[in-house]
Amino acid sequence: MAEYAIILDDLAVAMRLGIHPHEAVPQRVLLSVRMTVAYEQAPDADTIAQVLDYDALRDGIHALTAGEGFALQETLVERVAALCLADPRVREVRVRSMKPDVYPDARVGCEIVRGR
Q1: Helix, strand or coil, per DSSP, at residue 86
Q2: How far apart are CA 19 and CA 74, in angstroms?
Q3: CATH pick for 2-115 out of 3.30.70.2740, 3.90.1300.10, 3.30.420.10, 3.30.1130.10
Q4: Which of 3, 50, 67, 95 could form a disulfide with 43 if both were Cys (CB 3.0 to 4.6 A apart)?
Q5: How confident is the model over 53-101, as pLDDT tens digits?
Q6: Quick one: DSSP state of residue 23?
Q7: Domain coordinates of the chain in residue numbers?
Q8: What does the mean pLDDT of the chain come to?
Q9: Contacts (Cβ under 8 Å, ≥6 apart) of 19
Q10: Whole-number pLDDT of residue 67
């Protein structure tokens, strides 16, 4: 068994996220994902077919955030975690969302860890 950390860091998306009236329009959200992925053996052919394709992860997050939006960051990170855990090779996932523009002096976010 070979384990790897697959990281997608600070993916910037524009989406509706929040409960306040001014958050009814898309705002910038940064999403970071760190997955522990287990393969039967270390990749030996240097081909994407042997590993988790992070393009698919990025595309999935874009699809998730392009919809109606979410009231809570907690809901958003749970959905991203579920997307990651749909691949049976993913053993654990850490998902963080960050709204960098809500306050002039701070960013606000949510982070979870989920596993099998």
Answers
A1: coil
A2: 12
A3: 3.30.1130.10
A4: 50
A5: 999 999 999 999 998 899 999 999 999 999 999 999 999 999 999 999 9
A6: G
A7: 2-115
A8: 96
A9: 71, 72
A10: 85
pTM of the model as a whole: 0.95
Report pLDDT for 63: 97
Query: What's the token pair of residue 88?
Result: 């049976």
Nearest C-alpha neighbor of 7 from the set 94, 114, 72, 66: 94
State both tokens at 77: 């990170």
| Eight-class DSSP state of 70 | B
Q: What is the spatial distance between Cα 111 and Cα 33, in angstroms, rounded to a whole number?
A: 10
User: What whole-number distance in Å separates Cα of residue 109 and Cα of residue 73?
Assistant: 7
CB atoms within 10 A of CB 40: 8
Q: Please work out, in degrees rounded to the nearest 5, the angle formed at the alpha carbon of residue 112 by the alpha carbons of 76 and 89.
A: 90
Q: Which of 36, 41, 99 is nearest to 71 (CA)?
A: 99
Crossing angle between the packed helical segments 73-85 and 54-65, to the nearest 10 degrees: 150
What is the Cα gyration radius of the chain?
A: 15
